[in-house]
Each structure stands twice: as structure tokens, then as C-alpha cells.
Amino acid sequence: MKFLQRFYMGLIFFFLYAPILILMVFSFNDSKNRSVWDGFTLRWYEELFHDEQILQALLVTLSVAVLSALISTVLGTAAAIGIHNMKKGPRTTYLTVNNIPVMNPDIITGVSMLLLFVFLSQTMRLGIFQLSFFTLLLAHVTFNTPYVILSVMPKLRQMDPNIYEAALDLGAKPRTAITKVVLPQIMPGVVTGGIMAFTMSLDDVVVSYFTSGSTSQTLGAYIFAMTKKQVSPEINALSTIMFLVIFLLLVVVNIRQEKDKQRQARMRKRY
């Protein structure tokens, strides 16, 4: 039985990571042919840093990912605290509404955001909503915020419900009680939500395709357009770098979370 379980898990991990491994290997292939190995080379990495279009798309992607993660983390954390303090009926309603964008297909979100921006820019004559970096950022903040709320809510439920009132009774102002007492308690959920928002923004293609302008094309949309002709080996090199960066980021986060658990366990034993 254990053999079957291990075999099943190994099969799952193989199909998950074998394509990424092949991509990483062929990023060092001296040939443009994706099925023939023609020797080891680093020239695709060299050409990557000289391709202005790819670097521009990468800059837009990282800028949107970082900004949308920061903004959606702040908005999502504030919204989660507000929803948590509501009564059961309104809280259930708001959480249901919050889950709709998560369950909604990306194509529907992208098309609906496009129609909204076109309506605001052309019908309402609001030039700020013309397809550009701003509309791309606004779209990413819109679909990232619900994930942050879902990440923070469990930490709020685990928190002692009387800790905020206790801080107020001890003389703390509401803002101080939130920043010095509540936020440290839910910080793991906030960090997880921020990382999830960042990775969701990096991963998005469909919404970015509909909401970006001609000067704010993301890397995903650029690669998608490239598939109609031929994907350059430079994309393999770029994907390898991005995968390794995200992998290291996740390792650091997991180590931090494990240290937090160990520190909390030691504090419980001490008191």
C-alpha cells in the first residue's frame, strides 16, 4: 500500500516538474530546435539581456506584479479585518461575493474588465481608463485582492477575539492596537497573501491580454503572441531564471514560517 502511495505521488510530481526540467535543460541547448540536443551553450542567456522587447515586457510584468501585490495586500488585509468584525449574516454575504472572482474563469474577468474600461474611457470620456499600464495594474489589483482576503481570514479566526479590546483597555489607540497587536498576530497570513498575489500576477495571461495597452504588454502576453510563430530559446532562459527566483523565494518563506512555528512552540513551553 505504501509503495502504491509513493508511486502515485512520484507520478504526480513527475508530470508537474518534468516539463519545467526539460525547459531548463533546453535553455542551454546550442540549437533552436526544441527536440534535438546540439551541445551546451549560454548564448541564449546572453541574447536575453540584449533583447529590448523581452526586457521591456519583463519590466512591465515585474512592475505590475510588485505594485499589485503591495496594493492588494493592503486592501485585502484591511477588508479581511473589516469582514471579520461583521455580524454573521453580512460576513457570509461579503465572503460569498469575495469568492466569485476566485471561482470566475479568467476569460470572463478579462472581457468584463475590458468592457468596463472601454465604457469609462469612451462613453464617460475618462481618459485615465484608456488601456494602459494603469488599467493593467487596476485589473491585477482587482483579481488579487480576494486571494489576500482568503489568506488573512483564517489567521483572524485563530486570533484571540478579545486581544483588540484588551489593547484598547490598556490605553492603546485604535490605530496602535491594529498595527502593534492585531497585525503581528495575522502577519503570516498577510505575507502568504502577498506572495500569492505576486505569483498570481506573474502567472496571469488572459486578463493582462485584454486590459493592457500597446505600450504595457506583459511577458505572458508577449510569449502568447510569439507562439503563433516560433518561441525563441531566449524564453526558455528567462523562464528558467524566473522559476529559480520564485523557488528560492518559496524556500525562504517556508524556512521563515518554520522558524515562527518553532519560536511559538518554545514560548508555549516557557509560559
Verbal overview:
With 271 residues, the protein is an all-alpha fold. It has 11 helices and no strands. Helix 1 crosses helix 11, helix 3 packs antiparallel against helix 8 and helix 6 packs across helix 8. It is globular, with a radius of gyration of 23 Å. The model has no long low-confidence stretch (mean pLDDT 87).
Which descriptors would you attach to this protein?
271 residues; mainly alpha; globular
Specify Rg, calculated over alpha carbons.
23 Å
Portion in helices: over 70%
Helix tally equals 11
Strand proportion, as a percent range, falls in under 5%
| Overall body shape | globular
Beta strand count: 0
Question: Which structural class do you get from the secondary structure elements?
Answer: mainly alpha
Beginning-to-end CA distance, first to last residue: 42 Å
Sheet of most strands = none
SSE blueprint and pairings:
Elements: H1 2-26, H2 43-48, H3 52-84, H4 88-103, H5 106-123, H6 133-158, H7 163-169, H8 174-203, H9 206-211, H10 219-226, H11 233-270
Quick overview of this protein structure:
This protein has 11 helices and no strands. By secondary structure, it is mainly alpha-helical.
